[in-house]
Amino acid sequence: MTQPIVLHGHTSGPNPWKVAIILEELKIPYELKIVDFADIKKEPYTNINVNGRVPAIEDPNTGITLWESGAIIEYLVETYDKENTLTYTTSPEKYLVKQWLHFQMSGQGPYFGQAAWFTKFHHERLESPTKRYQDEIVRVVSVLDKALTGKKYLVGNKCTYADLAFVTWDSMLPFIFGDKFATLNFEKNYPAYFAWNKNLTERPAVQKITKDKQAAMAKGH
Amino acid sequence: MTQPIVLHGHTSGPNPWKVAIILEELKIPYELKIVDFADIKKEPYTNINVNGRVPAIEDPNTGITLWESGAIIEYLVETYDKENTLTYTTSPEKYLVKQWLHFQMSGQGPYFGQAAWFTKFHHERLESPTKRYQDEIVRVVSVLDKALTGKKYLVGNKCTYADLAFVTWDSMLPFIFGDKFATLNFEKNYPAYFAWNKNLTERPAVQKITKDKQAAMAKGH
């Protein structure tokens, strides 16, 4: 019997919840451990992740300790998705899934994150960096829209871990843009992206994690 | 016989050269095609990479077209590194290699790139964003230094694709920091990182690509 995987995360950031969605999709038992922001860059947590970030996992079934959400997702799928429900075994499909995962990791996540930083957390309001990263978000959305036109999913005709990897950052956009979000009108301007994201958010695993995140944030973590 | 893989790149950016190092290490024949910056975000190049970035590869041996340097590296190693010289087949080692690759893709590359942007290319000089990203570079270096203390390579005792993935961005640091670079004194402050990077830059594949890049830049691409 599979023992619960420990998922180290925090409440507000999207990356641990991204891993949680994969755990839910694959019905892998897990336990979420919240790491307080104050503790994240010091021991004992840095013994788990020397980079001082979440997520990280500890899997008692294999003994592995692993960080970086992209690597964790690849590990979970290769180890537990025995029927390849969220991936492909054929080439080029299996590499195209990796391509979109790396785009999520190196393109979506960092740019969306920098936009959030300059919009919400930087100690001074700076117009041009804020604009730079908000523009980059729209560019990333436009790339996804173009790739998804005429298609339901990024690779082939089934939902893969690559599609799911984008959801939690996408759900941050109303927070990042504030009042400006409505004016971007993604439904009209990027309809393939909009329909794809809507479809993904309606999956039971994504719905559950959205609720779990709201509940965790309401607890004040 | 392996037909040459087409590698789409440009001269100055580090990511195509990162892939070239892997091609050299694995002795895979390839042909570098320079995409001019003016052509990168429009057709026909966007038919190869909808994201309008380099690198991308076209492999006539398998018919695949693939972008995102991280995914390309995973593809090349899985397809051509039959003796696993740059990776592991055992767990947890093979996932730890992926972990460091994802850290390179999502941590090193984006932050180093933003530092270069605000130092060299942004239309106005802004102190706090420049400081933010330069500080983040030093933090990434300190994480690598901590992970490498007492070790020659990131995972186990051989050089993997994860080690090699960091080299081309690391080589940009004198350019990014300018006169400030010497004052950071990585040799004294981050000796494990310094020795690791020096060792990697002395590999024949890295030496060759360093020369190829310099020659391409001298041609004025």
From TrEMBL, chains A, B:
SUPFAM superfamilies: GST C-terminal domain-like (SSF47616), Thioredoxin-like (SSF52833). PANTHER family: GLUTATHIONE S-TRANSFERASE-RELATED, TRANSCRIPTIONAL REGULATOR URE2. Residues 90-219 form the GST C-terminal domain. Residues 3-84 form the GST N-terminal domain. InterPro entries: Glutathione-S-Trfase_C-like, Glutathione-S-Trfase_C_sf, Glutathione_S-Trfase, Glutathione_S-Trfase_N, GST_C, Thioredoxin-like_sf. This is Glutathione S-transferase. Belongs to the GST superfamily. PROSITE patterns: GST_CTER, GST_NTER. Transmembrane segments: none annotated.
